[in-house]
Amino acid sequence: MKNELIEMLCKKSFKYSRTPVFKLVSGEMSCFYVNCKPTILHPRGMFLTGHLVFEEIKELGLAGIGGLTFGADPIAIATAFVSEIKNKPVNAFSIRKEQKDHGIIKWVEGDLQPGDKIAILEDVVTTGGSTIKAIERARSEGLDVVKVVTLIDRQEGGIDKISEHVKDISSIITRDELIDAFTKQSM
User: Fold this and answer.
1) Is residue 26 over pLDDT 80?
2) Helical H runs in 15-174?
3) Answer CATH for 2-186 from 3.40.50.2020, 3.40.50.300, 3.40.50.620, 3.40.250.10
């Protein structure tokens, strides 16, 4: 499944240039860019992503999986769907980018209670900033963040920064694996 997902990401989500032409959220320029949405919103991509992430969290006894909207949302939904099929249901949740100012004011949307064990999901980690923000917001709602799963690690130091907040981190795919597969497809 992992190799099929890498191949799909290379075709639908990965852009590469010999010179740094892609501006990242951090403001840095990069030679490559990954937009996971075309892959993880595709039926097959969603299937593969949900199964691969479920394998990373299935033994943790989690109440929920999710992260900052919108990057984590399709991953969380796909994984929650797979968890039900596998008879180990885990709720999906979403963390707002901006706190709503009406109704019940909270960061996290989903069926969770304070004290619940959760995993934070991320589509792409570069500096780790958005993942750390998600961890902090989840903890501010009383949730117990026990794991982080990222679909793609750009291998630019973000995982190390995240590990200062959560010790259990896994990446499904690394930048090196993507570049290697992309290079082979381009030959």
Assistant:
1) no
2) 37-40, 43-57, 73-85, 129-140, 158-162
3) 3.40.50.2020
